[in-house]
Amino acid sequence: QVQLVESGGGLVQAGDSLRLSCAASGLTFSSCAMGWFRQAPGKEREFVGTITRSGSSTNYADSVKGRFTISRDNAKSTVYLQMNSLKPEDTAIYYCAAKATGPPGAVYTRTYSYNYWGHGTQVTVSS
Q1: What is the pLDDT of residues 6-61, one digit of tens each?
Q2: Would you say 19 and 83 are in contact if contact means Cβ atoms under 8 Å apart?
Q3: Which of 71, 103, 105, 119 to pair with 53, CA 20 to 30 A apart?
């Protein structure tokens, strides 16, 4: 059974940093592109960033570019989201997702591209 478990969320002040983790099991992690998405109350789930299987390439939403960094440790089956200079508008539930098929260097920015999802972790940024 595939499981993606996010952790590291919390309540922080504007300008602070957080690092989210997503531990995967039940799949061949090194064969999966991984993505981070977020959903704020009353809004649709939106793309945050993605990383290729090997970690050699990443892609980010314009709203987080330069502030957020995705990395992965295939030996630990874990993907990370380092979030710096947090803003109140970053407040949301953050989800990680796994894309189990596709070319090695592909990046995926759409929710429907992903096969598996975690349950999310809440990030709240106060002003």
Answers
A1: 999 999 999 999 999 999 999 999 999 999 999 999 999 999 999 999 999 999 99
A2: yes
A3: 119
> What's the CA angle centered on 40, arms 76 and 48, to 5 degrees?
45
Rounded CA-CA distance 118/6 in Å is 7
In contact, 49 and 80? CB cutoff 8 Å? no
Which residues in 24-52 are b (16+ Cβ under 10 Å) and which e?
beebebeebbbbbbbeeeeeebebbbbbb
**Termini Cα distance of the chain:** 40
**Distant-in-sequence, close-in-space partners of 114: CB < 8 Å, separation ≥ 6:** 35, 97, 98, 99, 108
Q: Nearest CA to 83 among 43, 36, 40?
A: 36
What are the tokens at 50?
A: 């993605």
pLDDT in tens, 76-114: 999 999 999 999 999 999 999 999 988 888 889 999 999
pLDDT of residue 67: 98
